[in-house]
Amino acid sequence: MRKIFLLYILLLTVCFGKAQSNFNYDFFQNLVNQKETNLAILFLNKCELLPQNTTTLDSIYFYKGKIYFNTKLFKQSVLAFNKISDLSVFYNQSKIYQSIGLLYLDSSENYINNELKPIKGDSVFNQIKTITMASVALLNNNLLVYDSLILQIKDSLFYYNNLQVSLNKWRKKANLKTKKPFIAAGLSALVPGLGKVYAGKPYDGLSTFLTHVPLGLIVWESYNNAGVNSARFITFTSISSLFYFGNILASYHYIYKNRKEEKIDKKIEILLQCNIMLRNYYN
Question: Is 152 left (phi over 0), alpha (psi -120 to 50) or beta?
Answer without folding.
Answer: alpha
